[in-house]
Design a protein that fits this description.
heterodimer; A: alpha+beta; Immunoglobulin-like; 2 domains; 5-stranded mixed β-sheet; 4 helices; B: mainly alpha; Cytochrome C Oxidase, Chain A; 3 domains; 16 helices; 0% strand; globular
Chain lengths: 264, 549
């Protein structure tokens, strides 16, 4: 093989391995800080996965790199057949059983977090009905007589109280969208003809970017929204000011239910 | 010819176009599959480069929103169904009859029909570009009800449906042919457990095609009825269910991912033993792992639907996790094959080892997205884009190139150049890392897929720019491959029957093989008949046999 002899090729896979390790560390542990109680659980589970993933990654890379460096033929004279090993049942049983145990463990962790994200509070502090449409969002507070809505960019702002479970009931007027707030580490699809329900407890006051995550046509990348989480007192005050005529300074469109269709 | 005389069909001269148009030879059909698939690949690749150019910076610079939507739809469709799947058919057509010691496929005419149906279907899908409103724009997954005429009225979407249905039928016919050939055309002595691993993976892949492709064919037929004849299978306002489309699509779509993975696992299981000078470690475990992956891949489809809120989250999480176990067995067995061997690294082996490194990362991130709660965050972000391209570009394509460099001497009698081959490998590997690793981070940070644009305030510009630069390296790497093929084909054929020291039967016959494949066959007493014959010949040369070996 031209160019394959000499000292070069052994270092190249080695460098590749080193690069990949750096890369794996880069990939792992970079979720945004969770703003919700449920999101913190998801973030915690992700960290567990990344640690185990890094372990598996390092093991495979170490073994493969060891094989390449140790068993590479360096000189053309280095000939003759190696020992023709066809397998080893003990070793093969080990690398079947151990991964089985590992994914079993990961499954248990997954179930634990699912029981949290799929839980429904008996009495949520707020219930917000979300409708996605091409291309914008409307947020209804049916028990409060308040609604906000908006098209295109920058989109509407939905205000929620912190520290209490709030419920989103989501559905679509046209095609499938997906309600996605990255800082919640959570999304759920917004499906025509169905209602999806989920509860979250926002722990930290702040303004969180939201966006559509299911391809819905040419306006797909231009239908953001904002979640503003405020203290329960400020939330009550905001509801009152909205009812009084929407003078709270939010970018909401009053009269949400009768928006003209069309792009921004 | 006068009437009454026996008419002898004139044989067209070898190399003429008529030979190729009328051939039923599995080798020629295999080569035609590969050439057509790579023609489609170049279209899909250019679309990818254009999309990466658009995403390099915030704002719209390169294309309109409409053409971006069309581009990702056609890119996905082409790469999965007009490139990946037919490349599997290319390798399988060329190799399966040779590896089992047959003269051809069991149904040669059906085989030719499969190819021509596939080519027609592919051209119909692409002909959307000739219509006024352009090609399909609903994503390669074509989710309902966006795929209904209310939201996507373009003729291009109808052409996409019809063309894909044809390619699907072609795949089903091909699968029937492979299963029948493997079961009925094996040479004397070749029991199932002496079959080469590549042929095993094609058997399991073909069974997957037989189970999975009818689902997409049905779904496409239902969609066409919805769009053109007023049915409402997927229209929620008329009692239809858009989620039904997702079930049908992914019942096909997830096995499809393994249809695009298992054959390349098979290629690795052929290449690595040859360049390690050892038998495949744990052959039977590899066979069982292949069958297990096939079974499990039929039961994981709804892990694409975790965020729909209408499926069993634990069931589809655990089945998806479990696939990691047989996949892990394969990776460990390949490494164990290398350990204790005498490793050489021509380009084919470089791609095979590159596969182990890159695919492993894709497998691991697959376990992450298989966990439903983690998928709640990562679904439909660039994390999923990165994972899927990691498996397909860092996995399947690496395996495909390993196979092409490995069997090119068999197919053409010429060996691809090593210098350009190694250039190709390193450009491809570095390009892969630069293109797709940043996308993991973008996705973890929440960047959604299928966005033509993103706000500059979100801080996604730098990583997108790196990703776009990486895609250029991938393009250059592919150019190196094309130049290599072009230069190599200009040389005279000079390769012996067995240039690498091969194991399986295709290395017994000449390079390229005669039309009927074999003049003779060696005795088949193990998974490595050509190796056995070579050892026997060496012993005979070394002197009189003194004992039983």
């Amino acid at each position: 093989m031209s160019g394959a002899t000499g000292g070069g090729p052994g270092r190249d896979p080695g460098r590749l391995a080193l690069l990949s390790v750096v890369v794996a560390l880069l990939v792992g542990g970079c979720l945004p800080a969770a703003a919700t109680a449920e999101g913190r659980q998801i973030g915690g589970l992700y960290d567990v996965f990344v640690v185990i993933a890094a372990g598996v990654f390092l093991l495979v890379y170490a073994l493969a790199t060891f094989a390449i460096i140790r068993y590479r033929v360096l000189r053309r004279r280095d000939r003759g057949e190696p020992r023709q090993v066809e397998g080893n049942e003990l070793i093969e049983a080990i690398w079947t059983a151990v991964p089985l145990l590992v994914v079993g463990g990961l499954f248990v962790g997954t179930l634990a977090v699912l029981s949290r994200t799929e839980a429904r509070a008996a009495t949520p502090a707020a219930e917000i009905h979300v409708r996605g449409f091409r291309w914008g969002w409307s947020f209804d507070y049916p028990t409060e007589g308040v609604a906000v809505s908006g098209l295109g960019i920058p989109g509407p702002e939905v205000v929620v109280p912190t520290g209490q479970p709030i419920r989103f009931v989501i559905s679509s007027d046209d095609v499938i969208h997906s309600f996605y707030v990255p800082r919640f580490l959570f999304k759920r699809d917004v499906i025509p003809g169905r209602e999806n329900v989920f509860d979250v407890t926002v722990e930290e006051a702040g303004t969180y970017h939201g966006q559509c995550a299911e391809f819905c046509g040419v306006g797909h990348s231009a239908m953001p929204f904002t979640v503003r989480a405020v203290s329960p007192e400020d939330y009550t005050a905001w509801l009152a000011s909205e009812r009084a005529g929407g003078a709270s300074g939010s970018e909401a469109f009053p009269g949400a239910t009768s928006l003209p269709a069309g792009s921004p | 010819m006068t009437t009454g005389a026996i008419t002898v069909r004139p044989v067209p001269p070898a190399g003429s176009a008529l030979v190729w148009l009328t051939t039923t030879d599995h080798k020629r059909i295999g080569i035609m599959y590969a050439v057509a698939a790579f023609a489609f690949f170049m279209v899909g690749g250019v679309l990818a480069l254009l999309m990466r150019a658009e995403l390099a910076q915030p704002g719209l610079q390169v294309m309109s929103v409409e053409s971006y939507d069309q581009s990702f739809t056609m890119h996905g469709t082409i790469m999965m169904l007009l490139f990946g799947t037919p490349m599997v058919a290319a390798f399988a057509n060329y190799l399966v009859p040779l590896q089992v010691g047959a003269a051809d496929m069991v149904f040669p005419r059906l085989n030719a029909l499969s190819f021509w149906l596939f080519l027609s279907g592919g051209i119909i899908v692409l002909s959307g570009y000739l219509t006024q409103s352009g090609p399909a724009d609903v994503g390669w997954t074509g989710y309902a009800p966006l795929n209904e005429p209310t939201f996507s009225s373009s003729t291009g979407t109808d052409l996409w449906i019809v063309g894909l249905a044809l390619t699907g039928i072609a795949s089903i016919m091909g699968a029937v042919n492979f299963v029948a050939t493997i079961f009925t055309r094996r040479a004397p002595g070749m029991s199932m457990f002496r079959m080469p691993m590549f042929t095993w993976t094609i058997l399991v892949t073909s069974l997957l095609i037989l189970f999975a492709f009818p689902a997409i064919t049905a779904a496409l037929a239902m969609l066409l009825l919805d769009r053109r004849f007023g049915a409402s299978f997927f229209v929620p306002t008329e009692g239809g269910d858009p989620i039904l489309w997702q079930h049908l699509f992914w019942f096909f779509g997830h096995p499809e991912v393994y249809i695009l993975a298992l054959p390349f696992f098979g290629i690795l299981s052929e290449v690595i033993p040859v360049f390690s000078r050892k038998p495949l470690f744990g052959y039977r475990a590899m066979v069982l792992a292949t069958i297990l992956i096939g079974f499990l891949s039929m039961s994981v489809w709804a892990h694409h639907m975790f965020t729909t809120g209408v499926i069993s989250l634990p069931f589809f999480s655990i089945t998806s996790f479990l696939i990691a176990v047989p996949t892990g067995i394969k990776i460990f067995n390949w490494i164990a094959t290398m350990i204790g061997g005498r490793l050489t690294f021509p380009t084919a082996m470089l791609f095979a080892t590159g596969f182990i490194y890159l695919f492993t990362l894709g497998g691991i991130t697959g376990v992450i997205v298989a966990s439903a709660p983690l998928d709640f965050h990562l679904q439909d972000t660039y994390f999923v884009v990165a994972h899927m391209h990691n498996v397909l570009v860092g996995g399947s394509l690496m395996g495909m190139f390993a196979g092409l460099y490995f069997w090119f001497p068999k197919m053409t009698g010429r060996r691809l150049g090593e210098r350009l081959g190694k250039t190709h490998f390193w450009l491809w590997t570095i390009g892969f890392v630069a293109t797709f690793i940043p996308q993991y981070e973008l996705g973890a940070d929440g960047m959604p897929r299928r966005y033509v644009d993103y706000s500059p305030d979100l801080g996604w510009g730098t990583l997108n720019l790196v990703s776009t630069m990486g895609s250029l390296l991938l393009g250059l790497g592919f150019l190196a491959f094309l130049v290599n093929v072009g230069l190599t084909l200009r040389r005279a054929p000079d390769q012996p029957a067995d240039p690498w020291g091969g194991n399986s039967l295709e290395w017994w016959t000449t390079s390229p093989p005669p039309e009927h494949d074999f003049e003779s066959l060696p005795p088949i007493r193990s998974t490595r008949p050509v190796y056995d014959a070579r050892i026997a010949a060496e012993q005979a040369r070394a002197g009189p046999v003194t004992g039983e070996s």
